[in-house]
Write a structure and sequence with these properties.
Layout (H helix, E strand, L loop, with lengths): L4 H4 L1 H16 L4 H16 L4 H9 L3 H8 L14 H8 L13 H10 L4 H9 L3 H6 L3
Length: 139
């Protein structure tokens, strides 16, 4: 079997995602977009049951999938706070001195990420998640 295209082009696809996220958020660099993307993915993951997190990871491209699960402790207590202001502040706490994520980071990442996933599979996955988790990714 040949290496799937998603794996052969993973770095290029990830760079495109970071570029789109930077544009969506009005950020100047891909490094800033990387921190924002990582923060958004971690904030979301902290609120998911293990099986929901695994299902969500399966619909992400390879490198965002790796970023989503990096340093994950599935035994960590789940956060139940889905308040949008609290979520935004939490995103901004990752590498706080180097984090330029705007208050709209979650919406910006959602818009960028949707350009890089299989829409049908992403929508099916979200439909199986709790309502707050689905709302997290609404455009």
């Amino acid at each position: 079997m040949t290496v799937p295209k998603d794996y052969r082009r993973a770095s290029e696809q990830f760079d495109d995602l970071l570029k789109d996220a930077a544009v969506e958020a009005g950020l100047e660099t891909r490094n800033q977009a990387y921190t924002m993307l990582q923060g958004v993915l971690q904030v979301f993951r902290r609120r998911l049951e293990v099986q929901d997190a695994i299902n969500f990871a399966q619909v992400l491209p390879p490198l965002p999938r790796a970023l989503f699960i990096e340093n994950w402790d599935p035994g960590q207590a789940l956060s139940s706070n889905w308040d949008s202001s609290a979520l935004s502040r939490e995103v901004q706490q990752l590498r706080v001195h180097h984090n330029f994520s705007p208050d709209t980071a979650i919406q910006n990442v959602a818009a960028a990420l949707r350009k890089h996933v299989d829409q049908t599979e992403f929508t099916k996955c979200l439909a199986r998640l709790p309502p707050e988790a689905r709302a997290f990714w609404e455009e």
